[in-house]
Automatic annotation (TrEMBL):
<dbReference type="InterPro" id="IPR052914">
    <property type="entry name" value="Aldehyde_Oxdr_Iron-Sulfur"/>
</dbReference>
<dbReference type="InterPro" id="IPR001041">
    <property type="entry name" value="2Fe-2S_ferredoxin-type"/>
</dbReference>
<dbReference type="Pfam" id="PF00111">
    <property type="entry name" value="Fer2"/>
</dbReference>
<dbReference type="InterPro" id="IPR006058">
    <property type="entry name" value="2Fe2S_fd_BS"/>
</dbReference>
<feature type="compositionally biased region" description="Acidic residues">
    <location>
        <begin position="129"/>
        <end position="141"/>
    </location>
</feature>
<dbReference type="Pfam" id="PF01799">
    <property type="entry name" value="Fer2_2"/>
</dbReference>
<dbReference type="InterPro" id="IPR002888">
    <property type="entry name" value="2Fe-2S-bd"/>
</dbReference>
<dbReference type="InterPro" id="IPR036884">
    <property type="entry name" value="2Fe-2S-bd_dom_sf"/>
</dbReference>
<keyword id="KW-0408">Iron</keyword>
<feature type="region of interest" description="Disordered">
    <location>
        <begin position="120"/>
        <end position="141"/>
    </location>
</feature>
<feature type="domain" description="2Fe-2S ferredoxin-type">
    <location>
        <begin position="3"/>
        <end position="79"/>
    </location>
</feature>
<keyword id="KW-0479">Metal-binding</keyword>
<keyword id="KW-0560">Oxidoreductase</keyword>
<protein>
    <submittedName>
        <fullName>2Fe-2S iron-sulfur cluster-binding protein</fullName>
    </submittedName>
</protein>
<dbReference type="InterPro" id="IPR036010">
    <property type="entry name" value="2Fe-2S_ferredoxin-like_sf"/>
</dbReference>
<dbReference type="InterPro" id="IPR012675">
    <property type="entry name" value="Beta-grasp_dom_sf"/>
</dbReference>
């Protein structure tokens, strides 16, 4: 069975007809030509397909496209403001936080969502102080690593990814 799904992708209203079993990742890539989210493992274990849906990060290979009717989806290329890179995109360049680049779009989207979660006081397993008044304190490297643990990098650029996130977070 097919269904029409209306959503906004990187600020552009889009309608797409998909089989109701089509994942958001496949809908983006195969139907809408949005190629930054990557199909890495197709099992929700690597994070290369991470996108932001209404500001929250999700694994798009495990999500049905029909579930996102009327939502705002932002991919890595949608973070930039016209010709000006998003601070995370610039930090990934500055810190050489990618090698092959395959995981980079998912890493950047996950980092954007993670920084927003931290700013809003959402704890992680590595959070030392659960007091919501401390949500504007800088994240430790351990905290960044814990919050990004669902995103894998086959090239092992993790130290540079942490440095990039630290830079984008303003410390």
């Amino acid at each position: 069975m097919e269904a029409r799904v209306s959503l906004s992708v990187n600020g552009v209203a889009r309608d797409v007809v998909v089989d109701t079993r089509t994942t958001l990742l496949d809908g983006l890539r195969d139907r809408l030509g949005v190629f930054s989210p990557k199909k890495g493992c197709d099992h929700g274990q690597c994070g290369s397909c991470t996108v932001l849906v209404d500001g929250r990060r999700i694994i798009s290979c495990l999500s049905f496209a029909v579930s996102y009717e009327g939502t705002e989806i932002v991919t890595a290329e949608g973070l930039a403001d016209a010709d000006e890179l998003h601070p995370l995109q610039q930090a990934f360049i500055d810190q050489d936080a990618f090698q092959c680049g395959y995981c980079t779009p998912g890493q950047v989207c996950s980092a954007a969502g993670m920084l927003d979660e931290a700013k809003n006081g959402h704890p992680s397993h590595a959070t030392d102080d659960l007091d919501p008044d401390t949500s504007d304190e800088p994240l430790s490297d351990d905290e960044i690593r814990e919050r990004m643990s669902g995103n894998l990098c086959r090239c092992a650029a993790y130290p540079n990814i942490v440095a990039a996130i630290r830079q984008a977070a303003g410390r």
